[in-house]
Amino acid sequence: MRDLDEKAVQAKEKKAALGPDIDLDAFDVEPVPHGYIENLAALPPQDKQRMILAGVDASEQGRSGTYLQKDTAVIHAHTKDQEGLEVLPIKEALKRYDWVKDYYWKLVSVDTDKYTAQAQLALHDGYVIRAHPGAKVVYPVQACLYLEKEGLSQNVHNLIIAEEGSELHIITGCATAAHLKRGLHVGVSEFFVKKNAKLSFTMIHHWAEEMLVRPRSVGVVEEGGLFLNNYICMKPVKSLQMYPTTYLVGKGAVARFYSLLVGSPGAHMDVGGRIFLKKPETRAEIVARTISNGGDIVARGDLIGEVPGIKAHLECRGLILNGGSIHAIPELNGKAEGVEMSHEAAVGKIAQDEILYLMSRGLSEDEATAAIVRGFLNVDIPGLPSQLKAEIDRAVEQSDKDIM
Amino acid sequence: MLHIEDLQVTLGDKQVLKHIDLDIGVGETHVLFGPNGSGKTSLLMTIMGYPQYRVTGGRIVFKGQDITHMPVNERATLGIGMSYQRPPTINGVKTRQVIEICSAGKVNAEELAATVNFSDFLDRDINAGFSGGEIKRSELLQLLAQDPDLMLFDEPESGVDLENIALIGNTISMLLQRDFRRNAEKTQKKRLEERTKMGLIITHTGFILDYVTADKGQMLYNGVLTCSSNPREIFRCISEVGYEECTRCAI
Fold it and tell me: What is the pTM of this model?
């Protein structure tokens, strides 16, 4: 741990490769006490409501476990009667289990930039979610990182481990209290998908207008493993920059990244996905749908095919609806003969003939536009449980009014 | 009824329809013939109200209302529907959803889809990767759901294989209340008298005439309606002497 601290100190001033620089000193890191809540029903109704917007349901219906962190404090962490599933705070896990250090900072480098450094030097907490070998966790685990205190930098570190042959679905919602305007969220996440395991990770962000967000995540997928990574951010945010990376290190490993972004006026979003295909028969897909509603969006995607017999596809579509900009940067990097890689990128407006087609079936122009926008954001995600599909649909529906 | 009077239309800077007069009475179906680029689709799109087809003169009256400058969706609500030749793909919008839009939620999409053998397509994005025949069945399914009083068919038989042509033809016949039913509640004569649906069908091949009876044929040549006669007669005429004959009447 001392080594990590030393490396982190070295990187304290290191600017990130991408995204506007943030003055970390402008945010508090002092712990904010909040009491542990045994029964989620006891949550204040206004908090429950905000969490639901990010896909976290306090009634826990159709969920197999819950992790709740408010500001810097873990206020709830438990699993329902689910065998082979662990959900616990990372600080506790680091104390309790030796194995945790085999994962902690093993994929993300602590000295990546000032944000990773901060997540080490001023760690508040974060979750460890682990499915034991062969465990089939059918219902999703939900995790919520909630920000209430104005001007706080919430620094978290998450470990997600799907052991050999297991199946794990996670929905994680980041949300802010209704009154909160300004804050910073720094989140380090490390994903381990072991042999023949299946992990789906759906993240719904529901931020505030002055929020700055800097997630740093890296995943690794072993032989025959599947990693589905969905990211939805349709609400205002001042600056969001992330470039999650995944390494497919075993034969036949698969990763699929899907993201839906809406850039509101004043927002700057720089979001991408990078997948390294390092073994034969690995597959990768990156699909992004972005709508600029006056904000500026940079949509990146990078696929690196290192060996023959891999297949990878990148699809980035953007609609500029009410001003703003979309900068699509799709990259393919084939490093061996016999790779199969493709991309399609398009930035434009809604096609007039699509609007007229629906109008000729009886919809008004506004209704037709709304249906097309909704369709644009309606991406089929194979392998995603229906509850999570429903949460994504709800987030899309929520944003409809803002977009139109 | 549909009444078109001295209609002049430009697309871009090209005049595509020149002084068109056309009346389709209640219960009537007309067939529209003409070579490629003669303005057939332009006429249908103008009746439907596509704004890029700019009306520079004349008027269109439907059910007693001047619809010349009415928005597309209001024409749909008034009872005009179209079966497109090349409808756009709309990603993420399911066929089922479009059926619901067409019928304003009043029909059962499953049951209706079964009638045109299209059940497997309900949860697919509308028109995405549909073959020629699938597009036609999808378009007819939408018209079945919408149930408009005036139906515009843009080459309903193009790209349809022999197996499906009967299904397409018979469905159009039914939509236009021109099908024949054994032992129906009402006599065929009564059904004919009560027929209200109007149709305007573009055809190149004339195949559709084997399935759908029509009252009149219209020949459109270079933006001009050159003749109006028995549809079979016009079709025979084109087959025998070609469109060249039309140039003699298009002046």
Answer: 0.86
